[in-house]
Specification:
By secondary structure, the protein is α+β, with helices and mostly antiparallel strands. It contains three helices and seven strands; from the N terminus they run αβββαβββαβ. The radius of gyration is 21 Å and the shape is elongated. It comes from Triticum urartu (Red wild einkorn).
């Protein structure tokens, strides 16, 4: 009788061990320089192994900046041509939910900040 319950118990235990060893821990990436999201950071993400599940943290003075997720075309032109996710808290946490290229700019009423290098393109593995 005890032998009949041992196999299912062992299978459950093995499944639990397997699940525990495949848990992926996400990483938080503070975008930009030591002082955060700022000018002249467009190549910040070039050498970062950012993965799905990681979190991008944008720190900045909320009164002066924002973060807008845009298309590649808008990124290149420093424009916001359609409704786009816009963050304004000064401590934005954006979870990466898929792989690919993602584009972010600062666009506070004018393209001036973006044109001066307050933009990044990130490749997520």
């Amino acid at each position: 009788m005890a032998r009949g319950t041992m196999v299912p118990t062992l299978l459950v235990l093995l499944l639990a061990i397997f699940c525990a060893t495949t848990v992926v821990h996400s990483k938080e990436w503070i975008v930009g320089r030591q002082d955060g999201w700022f000018f002249s950071i467009s190549n910040w993400g070039d050498d970062k192994p950012i993965k799905v599940g990681d979190v991008l943290v944008f720190k900045y003075k909320a009164i002066a900046h924002n973060v807008v997720q845009v298309s590649e075309e808008d990124y290149n032109a420093c424009t916001v041509s359609r409704p786009s996710p816009t963050y304004r808290s000064g401590n934005d946490h954006i979870k990466v939910t898929s792989s690919g290229r993602f584009f972010f700019i600062c666009y506070v009423k004018t393209p001036l900040h973006c044109e001066n290098g307050m933009k990044i393109a990130i490749t997520v593995q």
